[in-house]
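Lab meeting, item 3. Inverse folding demo.
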């Protein structure tokens, strides 16, 4: 159901489900005296959807911003397809195959929907000036959004005129359309109503069923996570404290495990202060 990738877009790699596409070892990050990540170890396998769960302020968005080249890590290493990777910028992470939908930076408000949808993958006309092909982008944007049932007033509307949920839907649609091998989605459903949540969930499921794209998704809604994900990792105290296959657990069990992890952490803090 997705629009055909444009010639200028990267071609996703051949499918080899189960192989590690992204490995994170001992990644640390502090902001001044605040030590947010104390040694994150995580593996993302080809074609899987990995849910990242944790309390507010646990460091999920910080971790995503490290993987997307927005923040440099203080320590640790990141491997893509087994090779050590460093990201000097968001663009550098993109060219190495990582596309991100940020929790707090979705679209450029002054640009129309169709240009936001093609951000970083603009189509240009043939010729020495390489002028933007706005007509083609407008047409393809309209087709694509119709295909995936995203409702916006017009593809010429500025992003600033859209609702929060519509903006998020465009940001997710853009990332899904980019055909990178790794997709990071930081709370993609947080501003969405039931209809838009459903279509984004279906879009992500559709994408993951191809096995070509590996996805990390952050969400506080366990029902969404249990529907979308193959595996869940819990981040707590700056580390991954639980790594579990969704089919081996339940919402109730995960809630219990998280509560007992927080209790342990609280006891440690109390004992350290005693
Ligand atoms: N640029 C920054 N400078 C200073 N502190 C930061 C910065 N970014 C994040 N923090 C702090 O790091 C901690 C982790 O924040 P982060 O946004 O990663 O949490 P989160 O797990 O994504 O939370 P939420 O579920 O609320 O989105 C918080 O205490 C936050 O205040
Ligand atoms: Mg966050």
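The presenter then showed the designed sequence:
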């Amino acid at each position: 159901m997705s629009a055909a990738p444009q010639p200028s877009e990267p071609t996703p790699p051949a499918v080899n489900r189960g192989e590690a596409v992204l490995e994170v070892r001992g990644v640390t990050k502090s902001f001044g005296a605040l030590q947010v990540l104390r040694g994150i170890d995580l593996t993302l396998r080809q074609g899987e959807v990995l849910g990242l769960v944790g309390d507010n302020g646990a460091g999920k968005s910080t971790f995503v911003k490290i993987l997307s080249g927005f923040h440099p890590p203080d320590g640790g290493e990141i491997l893509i397809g087994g090779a050590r990777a460093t990201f000097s910028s968001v663009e550098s992470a993109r060219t190495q195959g990582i596309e991100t939908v940020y929790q707090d930076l979705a679209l450029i408000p002054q640009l129309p929907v169709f240009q936001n949808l093609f951000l970083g993958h603009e189509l240009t006309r043939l010729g020495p000036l390489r002028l933007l092909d706005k007509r083609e982008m407008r047409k393809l944007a309209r087709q694509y959004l119709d295909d995936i049932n995203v409702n916006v007033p017009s593809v010429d509307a500025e992003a600033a005129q859209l609702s929060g949920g519509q903006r998020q839907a465009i940001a997710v649609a853009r990332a899904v359309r980019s055909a990178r091998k790794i997709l990071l989605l930081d709370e993609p459903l947080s501003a969405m109503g039931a209809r838009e949540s459903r279509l984004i969930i279906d879009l992500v499921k559709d994408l993951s069923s191809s096995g070509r794209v590996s996805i990390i998704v952050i969400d506080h809604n366990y029902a969404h996570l249990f529907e979308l994900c193959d595996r869940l990792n819990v981040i707590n105290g700056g580390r991954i404290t639980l790594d579990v296959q969704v089919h081996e657990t339940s919402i109730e069990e995960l809630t219990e495990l998280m509560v007992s992890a927080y209790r342990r952490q609280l006891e440690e803090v109390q004992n350290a202060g005693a």
